[in-house]
Amino acid sequence: MMTVLKNFRIVDKNTDIPGALIIENGIIREIISYRDSSANHHVNPFIDKADVVINGLELPFGGGGPEGQMPVLMPAFVDLHAHFRDPGFPEKEVLESASLAAAAGGYGTLVCMANTKPVVDSVEKMAALKRRSCALDLIDLYPVMSLTKNMEGKELSDLAGLPAKNESAYKGPLMLSEDGRDIAQDDIFLKAMKEARRIGIPVSCHCDAGGKEAEKAKQAGESRSVWSRIEENIATERAIALGKEARCHIHIAHVSTKEAAAIVRGAKAAMANPHKLLTCEATPHHIALTGACSHELGDESYGRVNPPLRGEEDRQALIAALLDGTIDAIATDHAPHTEEDKAKGAPGFSGLETSFAACNTVLVKSGLVDIRRLSALMSANPARILGLDSSGRGGRGLILPGFRADLVILDIDKKWKVDPGAFKSRGKNSAFAGMDLWGKIVMTLRGGRIVFFMQFPPG
Known about the structure:
The protein is α/β, with parallel strands linked by helices. It is about 35% helix and about 20% strand.
């Protein structure tokens, strides 16, 4: 099957050109730049034999404008950190609703955390969820496998039974994690990291183990904002130190404090090849919002998230870390909850359907980064971290011949008001509710096939 996408502004980490894209059997075959005077000569023969032709200037917002008004075509986003709540919590989210939300948010590949019921602590449980996702055929889902059985921090999951990732028959996870509870005992944590090194996949560390210092702050009645900062900073140092000892790729989840960002920056500076040993992510809500938003929503109810939203100095430090490469990727930490649970203080926000718009608003529209840099943070870099950046495997995250045609079409200049009631996700708990954001997902393609198309109002 052949699909032609013409009259688009094609953007990825390395590219920003007007052009057309030729897709054959789900794989990008050719990129044709309109800056080449013979572009039409190259495109027309493909159009003549294409099964599907999508003309960007015929989409409702195109309107035949100049090059700058062409809709943007980017690699679909890759999320390193989402909670699908499936199995075990259908009142919060199910695989179907999470997958629809991901497609509506422009995501093609996602990692989902293991804190389900039962915990995903075996290859069999991971494979069962993967099979269900493949049957839906909306996204590529890579379930995390927990480091310890039932996430109890006592006995390793069957990591020793996993082959090395470089073996051709590898069907294991692409990331390991204990989710929101890093293993308390150093020897067990280190043992798990050594297994991860042998397998050749990263360990996502959520950095919440603050030891005696954090416990002392809690006993003294300090606020969550104080003791959680101690937890994150100490746990970040610990994870990096253990990772160095294990020679394992450590990925620090949802960095939120200026101190943690500085710790990662310093550790990377001392490494010869940090991309292979230490990476980290930040969330759209930590990049865009501060504790004032949590306070307004309710610090212990609708505004609660782990780690908490921080101060403006922390937010600015995260942006600086994005700019200098300390932070490698933007991840949603999508955490859907019921209205009742959120009112009682369940931590987390639903983030899949607002992620791009929040980052586009805060980073691109403000002039801090260009659209290519945002594509790197949301697509190319997370794909690299997962080892999905090779055309030989139908790579993700870039628009290149040989890569999978997982794509997203965007109206980056569309201003819209966030209405969680319209979310595909069952979780309506958004920190951006009622806010005006810039950038709307118009269409998401998986292997060249449309899996989401925004409904436009009549006329």
